[in-house]
Amino acid sequence: MPNIWDPEYTITKEKAAQLLEEQFPISVHSIREIGEGFDNTILLVNDCYTFRFPRREIAVKLLTSEWELCGLLQISCLSPYLSRYI
User: CB–CB of 77/59 below 8 Å?
Assistant: First the structure.
């Protein structure tokens, strides 16, 4: 039986680079993990952009809610939602 804190999803640097380059106008030159929590993994890309990748399904739903809230509040979200995580 897995531990409750074990992630449902994991992201490799290679997979993160692939997803980012497919979905955004960015060329990934470097990726470094800068944090990991219960719900998300945070990566620093090209030493200037941070991206949050969900570690469990509930986090995907939370990111979607945050993205929708930014639209309702007419706030520019600098941390875009990835349309395809897996």
Answer: no
